[in-house]
Amino acid sequence: MPDSCRDLNVVLEEKVALLEKALIRERNAKKKLEAKLDEKAAVALYDNKEFFDSYEKATNRQVQLQFLAGLTQELLLDKNIDESFYHFASNVAKLVDACPVVVMRINHDGNNSIWSLASPNNPWQTMPWQADYEQIISPMLTKMESRWHRVEHQEVACRKVYSTLFRNDMLLYLLVKVTETELRLILLDISHFCYSDDFKHTLDIAANQFGSAIKRRMTKVELAYNIRDLRNTVTELKATQQQLVHSEKMSSLGQLAAGVAHEINNPIGYITSNLDVLKDYIDIYEQALSQMPQQLVEKFSNARELSFAREDIGELLSSCITGVDRVTEIVASLKTFSRKEQDEFSSVAINDVIESALKIVWNKLKYDHEIVQELSLNLPEIQGNYGQLQQVFVNLFVNAAQAMNESGELRIESNLVDNFIEVKVHDTGCGMDAAVIRHLFEPFYTTKDVSEGTGLGLSVSYAIVEKHNAKISVNSEPNQGCTFTLTFPIVYS
Amino acid sequence: MKGAIFTGFAEYVEKEFGLTAWLKTLDSCELESNGEYLSTELYEDIEFKVLADTLGNIVGVDREYLFRGFGEFFFPVLMSLGLPHVKEIDNLFDFMRAVDSVIHIEVQKSDPLAYTPKLLYDQPQDNVLIIRYMSHRQMCHFAEGLILGAATHFKQHANIHQTKCLCKGDEHCLIRVEI
């Protein structure tokens, strides 16, 4: 290489090296200048940053607050539980990139349901529940309620089942307890959950609000049920109170009647006995008088009155004895009211009692009335006094016959209802109004003529029924017939 | 786009492919800025793509490779800026959560109302972070490079893949990072 050429190369190399150094110096100088500018810009930025940050936060918050306010307003509306879930789930789905959403209702009794919404503009679809879904949801049911949880596709146990329900890689789900036996899951079918912390916080607040709203709604429902139960209890209490008052009244009247009967019993005893003796004495007098010559008798100053008295005395005496017998019968009936009386109870087939009572009153009913017996077979026996129970049914049948003047139907049913035997005696007679029903079981209360009834039949029946720890009630309206219902407890040995 | 990205890219190209490659690239492009970049200024986004594609043609690599490599290179530059809070970060995921604010701040210094990419995060598992990247600039591979640079910096191994990508027509990128 000639010297001149070598010198040129050296010169060029030196020049390049110097230029490179100059470039580096220039670049460093530029960097220093940029750094200074940067510093100034940073100061200016940080001066304004707080404002811009606040502005951005306020804008985001506004959107979130609008969503929460809208949600609160909707939750305050009186929607049913299903509607509340549909509305909440579709609104959240709309917010989370309009993703598909599934709502599952999980009951402890296994009666589960599932609804899906492909996109917020579509209607909700009901889907058939498949047992396989439980594999997906069982880990979810152990999570905390009213908070969003997230699960990725690959974490799910049964991917095949997963893909029949969901098309994305991730589920965002919320567990809400509706009642002690019912849980619901809202499952958002999402491809990601990359959102700002504020947004996630808003979703959590919404979930919490919704959980509280559902709890409030269910508390309301529970309260409504409690109020209904309380009202029913109050009604029952009122009825029980009325029954108690009535029972007490009946008991007092019964005791009074029994007391009177006891007091009458002795005088009636000696009156009956004396009347018999008196009858004998009168017979003696009559025999004596009949043996006297007729002319002698006619010489008495009051011969006419004597003759009349002799004719009348027998009839009067018979009438007195009949009257006293009737009083004796009444007194005997009144004794039934006495609680002290020890009756003999034994196992009694109620259908037998009914049939025997019907035989007694058969003559009164057989011509003009139709008798329908619907007596259940194989009823258990009750503990009772056959004769007294027969008396009760005879009373009821006689009353029914008297209530159906010309014709009608007497229907007798016996059934097993829970642990009771229920006997219904229904007639198609004249019925009763409420005023009559109120006094129906009181002793000596009667709507019949004095000659027809003593007013003791139903009151005695009532006392007998009470002794059997049974209940008697009546349901009737004027011209609508009448139904007596007797309920006998079954005592299992 | 912030000038610092252009100046940083120039340094990366010089280091990786030589000064000549960078100068040839500048020479081959018709740029509004004429390649005269100041890190404090903002430049048209298209210039960066033009530079990357031209360089790719010259050195025979694709845009994704360049962006990812540049991201890895640029991470130490970002760290050297000594931005508040970033200095105290000692792990990859915390840095990734902070990277949004780092980029924002750098851009906002020039123009507080300038467009910045939106990064949103989700951590479904302790070792997984999903980043939702939204930017019309489609610089998701640069973001991948930054993540790889950060992983090297924090001495953590990271696997990265995108389940969705703006470059493939999706409405956002989902970058899944597993450590």
Helix and strand layout, with pairings?
The complex is a heterodimer of chains A (493) and B (179).
Chain A (H helix, E strand, L loop, with lengths): L2 H74 L4 H15 L5 E7 L5 E5 L7 E3 L5 H5 L10 E5 L6 H7 L4 E10 L2 E9 L6 H95 L2 H5 L4 H32 L11 E3 L1 H16 L3 E7 L6 E3 L1 H18 L4 E10 L2 E8 L6 H6 L17 H11 L3 E6 L5 E8 L4
Parallel strand pairs in A: 8-10
Antiparallel strand pairs in A: 1-2, 1-6, 2-3, 4-5, 5-6, 7-9, 10-11, 11-13, 12-13
Chain B lengths: L2 H15 L1 H10 L16 H15 L3 H18 L11 H19 L7 E8 L2 E7 L5 H14 L5 E6 L8 E6 L1
Antiparallel strand pairs in B: 1-2, 2-4, 3-4
Helix pairs in contact in B: 1-2, 1-4, 2-3, 4-6
Which architecture of the largest domain in chain A per CATH? 2-Layer Sandwich
Q: State the strand order across the main sheet of chain B.
A: 1-2-4-3
- The general outline of chain B is globular
| Largest sheet report of chain A | 6 strands, antiparallel
Biggest interface pair, counts? A-B, 23 and 21 residues
Overall helicity of chain B: 40-55%
Mean pLDDT metric of chain B: 86
Detail the poorly predicted runs of chain B: none
Can you walk me through this structure?
The complex is a heterodimer of chains A (493) and B (179). Chain A is α+β, with helices and mostly antiparallel strands. Chain A folds into 3 domains: 77-194, GAF domain (Beta-Lactamase); 250-337; 346-489, Histidine kinase-like ATPase, C-terminal domain (Heat Shock Protein 90, 2-Layer Sandwich). Chain A is built from 11 helices and 13 strands. Chain A has helices spanning 3-76, 81-95, 133-137, 159-165, 197-291, 294-298, 303-334, 350-365, 386-403, 434-439, 457-467, and strands spanning 101-107, 113-117, 125-127, 148-152, 170-179, 182-190, 346-348, 369-375, 382-384, 408-417, 420-427, 471-476, 482-489. In chain A, the strands form 3 sheets. A 6-stranded antiparallel beta sheet of chain A has the order 3-2-1-6-5-4, with helices on one face. A 5-stranded mixed beta sheet of chain A has the order 8-10-11-13-12, covered by helices on one side. In chain A, β5 and β6 (182-190) form a beta hairpin. In chain A, α2 (81-95) runs antiparallel to α5 (197-291) and α5 (197-291) runs antiparallel to α7. The model of chain A has no long low-confidence stretch (mean pLDDT 83). Chain B is α+β, with helices and mostly antiparallel strands. Chain B has 2 domains: 3-61; 67-178, Alpha-Beta Complex (H-NOX domain), CATH 3.90.1520. In chain B, 51% of the residues lie in helices and 15% in strands. Chain B has helices spanning 3-17, 19-28, 45-59, 63-80, 92-110, 140-153, and strands at 118-125, 128-134, 159-164, 173-178. Chain B has a 4-stranded antiparallel beta sheet with strand order 1-2-4-3, with helices on one face. In chain B, α2 crosses α3. The longest helix of chain B is centred in the middle third of the chain and has 19 residues, at 92-110. The model of chain B has no long low-confidence stretch (mean pLDDT 86). Classes of the chains: A alpha+beta (493), B alpha+beta (179). The interface between A and B is medium-sized, with 23 and 21 residues.
